[in-house]
Specification:
By secondary structure, the chain is mainly alpha-helical. It has six helices and three strands. Strands 1-2-3 form a three-stranded mixed sheet. InterPro entries: DciA-like (IPR007922).
């Protein structure tokens, strides 16, 4: 049976936080170790395999690596002995084996990442291609003449985007 005497709320919460903190610290330590292991494994693998696999876990001296599909699993199986010996000699002397598993989410994530990268490149290119016409620049300069100082400077900077012809008119006024 539990203690039947009343306890201070602060003491109960402090004890609970200590237990939770210890568990969270363990999880965080394991996650950092797996990330470090993942970096080392990817540095040892050929370039074409790197985006299609990741270290998922390390438990009982067995490393679990996830791959995107069966073909990448076969390819990684060819690299298994080299990877095992390299890891044993560098950072994991206690490593007994490598378990390779298929995780189809990896291919979806790599496709999403590549499409996101393409979108961001396209957005950057579109931003660099933005231009305003000389007519718009002239209107901005006219508007800048009637505006307060801070707004005037912003309009003039926008007008400068039209090119050298508006910069010449900007210098005159």
């Amino acid at each position: 049976m539990r203690d039947s005497h009343p306890q201070a709320l602060f003491d109960v919460l402090e004890e609970s936080l200590a237990k939770t903190s210890n568990t969270l610290q363990t999880i965080q330590r394991n996650a950092k170790a797996i990330l470090k292991l993942n970096r080392v494994v990817k540095s040892l693998l050929p370039a074409e395999i790197k985006p299609m696999c990741r270290v998922a876990n390390y438990r009982n001296n067995i490393m679990v690596i996830e791959v995107a599909n069966a073909s990448w699993m076969t390819r990684l199986n060819y690299e298994r002995t080299n990877l095992l010996s390299a890891l044993r000699s560098s950072i994991l002397p206690s490593l007994s084996s490598i378990d390779i598993r298929i995780n189809p989410d990896l291919i979806r994530k790599s496709k999403q990442n590549s499409s996101l990268n393409k979108q961001s490149v396209n957005q950057r290119e579109n931003r660099n291609q933005r231009q305003i016409s000389t007519q718009t620049a002239e209107q901005l300069l006219r508007l800048a003449e009637k505006s307060p100082k801070g707004l005037k400077e912003r309009f003039e900077r926008l007008a400068a985007l039209a090119g050298e012809s508006t910069n010449a008119t900007n210098r005159k006024g």
